[in-house]
Design brief:
The protein folds into two domains: 234 residues, Putative sugar-binding, N-terminal domain (Rossmann fold, 3-Layer(aba) Sandwich), CATH 3.40.50; 170 residues, Four-carbon acid sugar kinase, nucleotide binding domain (Molybdenum Cofactor Biosythetic Enzyme, Chain A, 3-Layer(aba) Sandwich), CATH 3.40.980. Helix content is 39%, strand content 21%. α6 crosses α7, α7 packs across α8 and α13 crosses α14. The protein binds adenosine-5'-diphosphate. Adenosine-5'-diphosphate binds next to α12, α13 and α14.
Amino acid sequence: MPLIGCIADDLTGATDLASMLVQGGARTLQVMGVPSAPLETADIDALVVALKSRSLPPTEAVRESLRALAWLHRQGCRQFYFKYCSTFDSTAEGNIGPVTDALLAALDSDFTVACPGYPENRRTVFNGYLFADGVPLNESGMQDHPLTPMNDANLVRVLKPQTRRPVGLLDYATLRRGVAATRARIAELRTAGIGIAICDSIDDADLETLGRACVDLPLVTAGSGLALGLTTAWRDRGALPASGDAASLLPPRGRRAILSGSCSRATLAQLQQARALYPSFHLEAGELMERGNGLVAEAIAWSAVQHADQAVLISASSPPDEVRRVQERFGGLAVGERIEHALGEIARALVYRQDVGQLLVTGGETSGAVVRALKVGGLRIGPRIDPGVPWTQAIGDDGKVLSLALKSGNFGSVDFMVKAWEALA
Ligand code: ADP
């Protein structure tokens, strides 16, 4: 029976959490959206439902999250984890507050924590203030985010207008006094009527203390960092294997391909290195808008004649000035959707007609489009390539293994596209 049931508000964030759970020894399965039927999960410790609820209107985000909770409940999960971004991405209306309120009510519970800290990725919280890469959240670039601009680093203040419940703080000084002191403080906050406590965390030891103090809460809300502490606590209790390889996957098979739709700085640098090594096809955005399916067919035909034992690279990614030019001509949304659709079509042809069995995708939205096009329902989470990016595996209806790595644009070191294959072999 799965122990931990997780609801993630976006796809690459779900994979990031799933990877953390695997590192903590939990055999983890990620599903895309809420499955319509129960799944066989006899050998699974953690289930992660990937939603796309971060920028939905709050009522829709709540509805989706409650559906996910009900499904996880039916699968037998005992503790629930609402996962959001470690930069607490939300607007004045939500969705972190409304979803937390609804999940607490559905679980008949009156208290939970909010712990975005992820020290390994340089997200820390001190006295309730969130720092990203060492600077306050509202100076980190997140103040310019197009959908969820973050103009205040004080998370107690940020969360208050989003929730009906009183918000408090579980501070660093308490955490440093250990698990018993932290549990005692949680009891005090509850007695004082606090419904959600923002948690400090500046290093992994804080996450371990928090994990041990929160292991009996029906619901936790967090970035992926808290999974480190929770899995430690579950292992201590013997509810997870003390050792063993939760990341072991079936042997990879088939040809290798990279599909890139991210224009983030980290991805552009990774592509520069990869282009020197692999045959590559540039899916030029302006040409795609004009020629549409003709260019998609050309990319597919090009891939078919490449050497089967070499990775092929098909990329739409471009530097900012080119992106701006094509967006001005055709509209940003239209171009983005056309490229996502094209890469989805290409993924389908490569996997189902050209025997690609190892596929690396860049970009959060792009990954979502590819996974939808491939009709992948569930992913078993495997070894980590870089923080936040594991290999995953889906088994098709034909029993064939498909290895997938879904990389959020800015994740991964510069040699990501080379070392990824080594992590799978
Ligand atoms: P990231 O994780 O880096 O944000 P996403 O895949 O989420 O990557 O978003 C990138 C968006 O940019 C996608 O909608 C993609 O289709 C679009 N895109 C990719 N290449 C180009 C390009 N050359 N011009 C304009 N838009 C592009």
